[in-house]
Amino acid sequence: MPSTSSSTLTSTTTITTANVNNNNNNNGNVTEKVGDLRIRFWYSVEHILALNHYQPLFDILMSSLDSKPYDISFTSILQHLPVDLGHLARPLMKIFLKHDLFNDFFRLVCQQYISSSNETSTLFRNQSMASKLMHEMMKFCGSEYLISTLKPVIDLVYAEKKRCEIDPTKLNQGENLEENTRNFAVYAELAFVRVCESSGSCPPLLKNVLNVLREVVNEKYPNKPDISRLAVSSFIIMRFFAAAILNPTQYGLKRKAPDPDVSRTLVLISKILQRLANCVVTQQPLITKEPWLSSVLERFFDDGHRAEMVEFFDSISINNYHLMKSTSSQNRKPEVLKSGLMVEKRGNGSRRRSIKDVFSQKRRFVTLTQKELSWKKEKNNSQNDVEQKGVIPLSEITSVTQVDSQKSSFRVATSHQEIHFQAVNNTDMTDWMILLITHQRRHLFFHNRPCGKSKNMHHHIDIEKELETLHSLLFENIESIYKWKESVEMFDIKKKY
């Protein structure tokens, strides 16, 4: 029986440093001992045989695709072994993927699962072979996609360490709830935007698997796209993006575990993403057991956010979706994010305030798009053309901060100017600031995003190793298999089937 052995080694090495000394005769080099470093490392030796030794196991696995019904197939029976389904799903996924048969295998497993499931609200949300296979597939081929999508947001949360607690019972003494809400809304909006705009980066392999999932659900529930989107959401949001936000170290987004405040912020961001996904795919009203979360959730529960998430689900799970998308859907997102009247006040930097600053205050009609912030003279019905008084590209904005000394005011700063705006009230000011900060950072993320060619994941699969892993699981549970064999021999197989 091939085996795996593990060992532990401890080694001590001496650390030295070389100093240059021109007065010395030995070429000017003097070596000084800094100290000793003790290293302990672990390694394992896996005994894996050549492929021909696993040929019978491989053949019976492949024959499962042709079994009628699938319930009597070898891979279906494996689900009943007393082992963690994840330990079975991982080698099975890689073996079938290596031979370009995973979609066929996954389709059969999903059909088996959905034929015995009648509750649509929990579809694919319990532990099953179908959910484990999808989970392993997302981890295997989606790690780079996940990192490129979420890491900029996670890095920002880690670096800024801004307080985002909005539960009144958990606020520190003297803490500003309004400021925390604004911080949280910006982070949540950034995470939402990154996810919904990531469909172009989703690996084709993952899109094809999600397409299979959706087709299987549509077979059971025809003309009910919300249910098929619910299935997609159960994996790509619940088990992928939201799970990674909650556990950034486990999913390779960060090496260091978050401190308590950052961890709390990540929990809140994950809640927003999950609640919004649930409401979008089920078309249920916004209901939460945490009333303090409602003020932020309501920002996301509008037609614009719902449409963006629906389009995201469809674009990663429908083949050739970009060809099917109509012109109206392409132009659905409005160019203008927000517009309205505000008072413009020129920032004075370090200069002391003077009477001149009072007369420099002007009412302006301000417009924010995804590219720039612009303002013009106050709208006048008698004028056809209104003179534009200023414009700032979002890429040039360095900061957006509240002006504490002025009511409902905030400053927009660039490297060469500073503009103050006074909104109608604090709520309006908060809306402006959240949108400005979110889309300024979104613009920054877009231009700093990594680029590269997608890898062929088939090349990273060691088929002999995966067959050995599966073989070892079977060998460890041989007693259960023998008991099954004895039970089956008690029946007349021909009469039963």
UniProtKB/TrEMBL annotation:
<feature type="region of interest" description="Disordered">
    <location>
        <begin position="1"/>
        <end position="29"/>
    </location>
</feature>
<dbReference type="InterPro" id="IPR001849">
    <property type="entry name" value="PH_domain"/>
</dbReference>
<keyword id="KW-0343">GTPase activation</keyword>
<dbReference type="Pfam" id="PF00169">
    <property type="entry name" value="PH"/>
</dbReference>
<dbReference type="Pfam" id="PF00616">
    <property type="entry name" value="RasGAP"/>
</dbReference>
<dbReference type="InterPro" id="IPR011993">
    <property type="entry name" value="PH-like_dom_sf"/>
</dbReference>
<feature type="domain" description="Ras-GAP">
    <location>
        <begin position="84"/>
        <end position="278"/>
    </location>
</feature>
<protein>
    <submittedName>
        <fullName>Uncharacterized protein</fullName>
    </submittedName>
</protein>
<dbReference type="InterPro" id="IPR001936">
    <property type="entry name" value="RasGAP_dom"/>
</dbReference>
<dbReference type="InterPro" id="IPR023152">
    <property type="entry name" value="RasGAP_CS"/>
</dbReference>
<feature type="domain" description="PH">
    <location>
        <begin position="335"/>
        <end position="441"/>
    </location>
</feature>
<dbReference type="GO" id="GO:0005096">
    <property type="term" value="F:GTPase activator activity"/>
</dbReference>
<dbReference type="InterPro" id="IPR008936">
    <property type="entry name" value="Rho_GTPase_activation_prot"/>
</dbReference>
<dbReference type="InterPro" id="IPR039360">
    <property type="entry name" value="Ras_GTPase"/>
</dbReference>
